[in-house]
């Protein structure tokens, strides 16, 4: 009977080994499916991160361009204002100088004529020396 018991034990061991092997194969298949799903999710997440990063870079570049454009417009406006103010001041000073000359000519007409003659002589001498 020991031979029968041995065969029964071997049969039980064989059955247990087959059951264990089937469970290992099932667990390996489940693990493989889980791993494949995790890899898919990881790829999707990386794609989403790439999209977000591209949108961020695009937005940041657009904002930088707008900021540069605003700075350029501001500088142009300031330069225009300064040039306009300088022209206004120069015009006012020319009017003041002309007004002073006119007032001096009214107060001292002979001195004005003498000054004009002197300026004419100097211009004549200068132009004569160049010829």
Structure characterization notes:
It is a single chain. The chain is mainly α. It has one domain (about 1-95). Helix content is about 100%, strand content about 0%. The protein contains two helices and no strands. The protein has helices at about 1-105, 110-130. The chain is rod-shaped and about 155 Å long. The mean pLDDT is about 80. It comes from Pseudolabrys taiwanensis. This is DUF883 family protein. Keywords: Membrane, Transmembrane, Transmembrane helix.
Instruction: Provide the domain count.
Output: 1
Output the structural class. Answer: mainly alpha
Main β-sheet description = none
Rg, alpha carbons? 51 Å
Q: Which stretches are low in confidence, meaning pLDDT under 50 for 5 or more residues running?
A: none
Task: Write the H/E string, N to C.
Answer: HH
How would the global form be characterised? Answer: rod-shaped
Keywords: Membrane, Transmembrane, Transmembrane helix
Protein name: DUF883 family protein
Transmembrane segments: 110-127
Which characteristics define this entry?
mainly alpha; 131 residues; rod-shaped; transmembrane helix; transmembrane; membrane
